[in-house]
Design goal:
Blueprint: E1 5-10, H1 19-26, E2 35-37, E3 43-45, E4 48-53, E5 59-64, H2 78-89, E6 104-111, E7 114-119, H3 126-129, E8 156-162, E9 166-171, E10 186-191, H4 195-204, H5 253-262, H6 265-273, H7 302-311, H8 328-333
Parallel strand pairs: 1-10
Antiparallel strand pairs: 2-3, 4-5, 5-7, 6-7, 8-9, 9-10
Helix pairs in contact: 5-7
């Protein structure tokens, strides 16, 4: 690999390159948000350099960074931020996390460097949500073409995309954050679906890094390889089994309780992820401020689960279909 170049690899869905994989390439490389979430799970300033929250929690006033430009030369200011947020929360929005913006009542721009969000009701996670990929700032004129030729404010510019193969990025020499030393001239992201091929590419040096390695059972194969470093940390990725409580048989509380008690979470973590996981018992992860370990509320108890199903009128159990999103961690766990 030439000096100043770096090759990454990321997982893809079985049917091809997923939107998740593309998001991993573009987020924080091409696109940035008002806030960002650091490696410790804490919210930090990004394109908003500071903010104030009203005592009632319903007004957020952001001071935006000056001197920030998009890769096409357009300046970032409050009008751009308003466009982005209104676009994400609009009636015709296709943003996959549109719910993040549901609490926002109005978006105001007192001046070019000030953005005011007025909420319908307090939203304690708003700053965190604004740091997610679904909340990145987009330039109005180029927004419609971001699926194929993304334009952002980040440290790397989009160069090319060979669908199903790779994405090429180049250093943004005009990057606004001078405290960040962008040492790479180019970065190449390859898409590799097969876990065995992922491991082989790492060992052969065909790729330099794999941000989210999709085969935990192969992690031990890297031990003793002085060319590689394996880093294991926490994550916001989680698997939650959601049920439609308005439909039979899930409208019966006993059925829902039985299903909770029928799942041996420790076995799922071991079987699907070779032990690299944490049972959580709720929709929060340990990184979230509202996390509370609820795994003990309905602990694994197969016999009690059977008894509850019998009480609900299903002594012989029942069958149903589970649908999982395309992300590797969800597919493996389901």
């Amino acid at each position: 690999m030439p000096a100043g170049c770096f090759s990454f690899s990321t997982s893809v869905a079985a049917s091809g390159v997923s939107t998740v994989a593309i998001g991993q390439v573009s987020w924080q490389n091409i696109f940035e948000g008002l806030t960002t979430v650091d490696s410790a799970g804490k919210v930090q300033p990004q394109l908003a350099e500071s903010w104030e929250i009203s005592p009632d929690g319903k007004t957020y006033t952001f001071k935006l960074r000056k001197g920030v430009t998009f890769h096409n030369g357009v300046a970032f200011d409050s009008s751009v931020a308003k466009f982005t947020i209104d676009r994400a929360r609009g009636a015709d929005s296709v943003n996959p996390q549109k719910r993040y913006f549901a609490s926002i009542e109005t978006v105001e721009t007192p001046d070019a460097a000030t953005l005011v969000l007025k909420l319908k009701q307090p939203a304690g996670s708003l700053l965190y949500w604004l740091g997610w990929p679904a909340s990145v700032m987009v330039e109005p004129k180029s927004a419609a073409d971001n699926k194929t030729t993304p334009v952002g404010t980040g440290p790397f510019k989009f160069v090319s995309w060979q669908k199903g193969s790779k994405v090429d990025l180049a250093k943004n020499t005009d990057y606004w954050n001078k405290s960040v030393s962008v040492k790479l001239e180019t970065a190449v992201f390859r898409f590799i679906a097969d876990p065995q091929a992922q491991a082989a590419a790492l060992k052969a040096g065909d790729v330099d890094a794999f941000p989210e390695f999709g085969a935990p059972e192969l992690v031990s194969s890297f031990e003793g390889d002085t060319k590689l470093t394996t880093v294991i940390g926490n994550t916001e990725l989680k698997v939650v089994a959601g049920m439609n409580n308005s439909r039979k048989p899930f409208d019966d509380k006993k059925v829902r309780q039985a299903l909770m008690m029928a799942v041996d979470r420790a076995t799922v973590v071991e079987g699907a992820w070779s032990g690299y996981g944490t049972p959580i018992g709720s929709h929060y992860t340990p990184n979230d401020r509202g996390f509370k370990d609820l795994t003990g509320v309905y602990p694994y108890d197969a016999e009690k689960a059977k008894a509850l199903l019998s009480e609900a009128g299903y002594p012989n159990g029942f069958s149903f279909t589970m649908k999982a999103p395309q992300m590797a961690y969800a597919q493996r766990s389901s």
